[in-house]
Design goal:
Elements (H helix, E strand, L loop, with lengths): L16 E9 L3 H12 L3 E12 L3 H4 L5 E8 L3
Parallel strand pairs: 1-2, 2-3
Length: about 80
């Protein structure tokens, strides 16, 4: 499916370092969209951090150009 992510242009100043923090990393689509949105506003994404990473859904690979940190990892089968 498709969804949308919005942010006010004034909320992020160019060259601001940001960390994206989310609860779960599954396919990586939401975090990748957020990285792209912030980058388009001139921000620098330092890392993406997650409480839980669901291994096997390739979310980390989707974010291959960004440092990914996760507290817990669980393997899932597709």
């Amino acid at each position: 499916g498709t969804d949308s992510i919005f942010i006010h242009k004034d909320d992020v100043k160019p060259d601001t370092n940001v960390a994206i923090i989310d609860d779960i990393l599954a396919t990586g689509g939401t975090a990748k969209a957020m990285c792209q949105l912030l980058s388009s506003l001139g921000a620098k994404v330092a890392c993406c951090s997650f409480l839980l990473e669901l291994e096997g859904l390739n979310g980390r690979e989707c974010l291959s150009d960004t440092q990914v940190l996760s507290v817990l990892k669980r393997t899932v089968c597709e």
